[in-house]
């Protein structure tokens, strides 16, 4: 017998240990056209896919936390408005083969959501935070003050059987879906927080960054300056002197480089990596005019000396010291949901 709620809801949260079968969930949603927020946290039992499609015309926030197979199933059965904020947190499936199949289903479901976005012309900001055990992608619409979240994806690898390659497989799939269905050329801001990547993870990050042709500001957390990221930046599109066109530049519109506050893998190799990345960006971004470094960073003095080199002396670039309170965006690298981030 169908499950019905005899009144209209604005907010519905079903959180473990409460559980519903997928069919009963759709029965509940079928008569809730005024629903504005739906939160499902490990509360839907996986069943063969029903044929019904639920239209939730008033939904403003969709928040799913579950295995990839369950999230893909739910997303595939919902039609949501383009303005709905989608937040999905995935936990690692037990078997590698399950993850491979789930990855394909989830990519299809997300592609449908991305294609449904109201406008592909919005100026966006992106957070890309990746480690062997977690991935975190957040997209913001910066036409508003404060910036509005559009989408958030989190992968959580937990337990003794954590498989980083599943994390990177899903990361590659998500970035492919974003790249194919979103106009990354309209992104003006990027926060990058990456370490411990394998080859496929590095390729996914490189693919993402090579589509950000209109970045105005790039921010990096200190742990981003590792040997893998150095290689990613060195592999970005190079400026070829004999055919110097806009398309040959990695970031032709980039104005600001921002080093987030935090320990810079202290001295030695971390600082060396920082300067290699910095040089790669400057070599591919002719409009960069300012570099922001934490006022207590050990690299501040060395940065000043760095720009006294003959090859860089002709660059007009302001080096600014910043304090801890200027950029709250770095909080997002620690998986904190903050929908009121303000970009410069």
Write the layout of secondary structure elements.
Blueprint: E1 11-15, E2 20-21, H1 22-29, E3 37-41, E4 44-45, E5 54-55, E6 61-66, H2 68-76, E7 78-79, E8 85-91, H3 96-115, E9 124-130, E10 134-141, E11 148-156, H4 164-181, E12 187-194, H5 199-209, E13 217-220, H6 227-234, E14 256-259, H7 269-284, E15 290-294, H8 300-306, E16 318-322
Parallel strand pairs: 1-3, 2-4, 3-6, 5-7, 6-8, 8-11, 9-12, 12-13, 13-14, 14-15, 15-16
Antiparallel strand pairs: 9-10, 10-11
Helix pairs in contact: 2-3, 3-4, 4-5, 5-6, 6-7
Sum up the structure in keywords.
alpha/beta, 24% strand, disordered C terminus, 28% helix, single chain
Explain what the structure shows.
The chain has 344 residues and is α/β, with parallel strands linked by helices. The chain has a domain at 130-136 and 184-344: Leucine-rich repeat, LRR (right-handed beta-alpha superhelix). The protein is built from eight helices and 16 strands. It has helices at 22-29, 68-76, 96-115, 164-181, 199-209, 227-234, 269-284, 300-306, and strands at 11-15, 20-21, 37-41, 44-45, 54-55, 61-66, 78-79, 85-91, 124-130, 134-141, 148-156, 187-194, 217-220, 256-259, 290-294, 318-322. The chain has a twelve-stranded mixed beta sheet, with helices on one face. α8 links the parallel β15 (290-294) and β16. α6 (227-234) packs parallel to α7. The termini are far apart. The relative contact order is 0.09. The model is unreliable at 239-247 and 326-344 (pLDDT under 50).
Strand content: 15-25%
* End-to-end gap: 54 Å
- Count of helical stretches: 8
Q: Could you say what the CATH architecture of the domain at 130-136 and 184-344 is?
A: Alpha-Beta Horseshoe
Secondary structure class reads alpha/beta
General shape: elongated
| Sheet with the most strands, sense and barrel status | 12 strands, mixed
- The CATH class assignment of the domain at 130-136 and 184-344 is Alpha Beta
Assembly type of the shown chains?
single chain
Widest β-sheet, arrangement of strands:
1-3-6-8-11-10-9-12-13-14-15-16
Please provide the count of β strands: 16
Mean pLDDT: 78
CATH topology of the domain at 130-136 and 184-344: Leucine-rich repeat, LRR (right-handed beta-alpha superhelix)
The low-confidence runs, each spanning 5 or more residues with pLDDT under 50, are 239-247, 326-344
Helix content: 25-40%
Output the helix-strand order: EEHEEEEHEEHEEEHEHEHEHEHE
């Amino acid at each position: 017998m169908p499950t019905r709620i005899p009144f209209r809801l604005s907010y519905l949260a079903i959180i473990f240990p409460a559980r519903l079968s997928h069919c009963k969930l759709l029965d509940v949603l079928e008569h809730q056209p005024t629903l504005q927020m739906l939160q499902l946290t490990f509360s839907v039992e996986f069943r063969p896919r029903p044929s019904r499609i639920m239209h939730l015309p008033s939904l403003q926030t969709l928040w799913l936390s579950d295995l990839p197979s369950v999230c893909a199933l739910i997303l595939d059965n919902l039609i949501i408005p383009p303005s709905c904020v989608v937040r999905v947190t995935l936990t690692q499936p037990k078997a590698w083969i399950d993850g491979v199949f789930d990855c394909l289903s989830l990519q299809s479901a997300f592609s449908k959501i991305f294609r449904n976005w109201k406008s592909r012309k919005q100026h966006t900001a992106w957070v890309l935070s990746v480690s062997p055990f977690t991935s975190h992608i957040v997209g913001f619409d910066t036409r508003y003050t404060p910036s509005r979240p559009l989408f958030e994806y989190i992968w959580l690898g937990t337990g003794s059987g954590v498989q980083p390659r599943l994390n990177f497989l899903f990361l590659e799939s998500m970035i492919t879906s974003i790249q194919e269905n979103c106009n990354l050329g309209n992104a003006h801001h990027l926060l990058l927080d990456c370490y411990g990547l394998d080859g496929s993870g590095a390729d996914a990050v490189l693919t993402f960054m090579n589509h950000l042709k209109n970045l105005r500001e790039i921010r990096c957390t200190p742990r981003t300056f590792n040997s893998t990221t150095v290689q990613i930046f060195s592999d970005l599109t190079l400026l070829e002197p004999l055919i110097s066109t806009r398309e040959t530049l990695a970031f032709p519109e980039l104005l600001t480089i921002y080093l987030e506050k935090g320990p810079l893998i202290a001295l030695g190799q971390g600082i060396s990596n920082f300067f290699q990345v910095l040089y790669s960006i400057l070599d591919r971004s002719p409009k960069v005019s300012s570099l922001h470094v934490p006022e207590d960073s050990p690299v501040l003095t060395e940065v000043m000396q760095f720009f006294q080199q003959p090859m860089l002396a002709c660059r007009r670039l302001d080096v600014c010291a910043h304090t801890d309170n200027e950029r709250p965006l770095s909080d997002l690298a620690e998986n904190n949901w903050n929908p009121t981030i303000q970009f410069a």
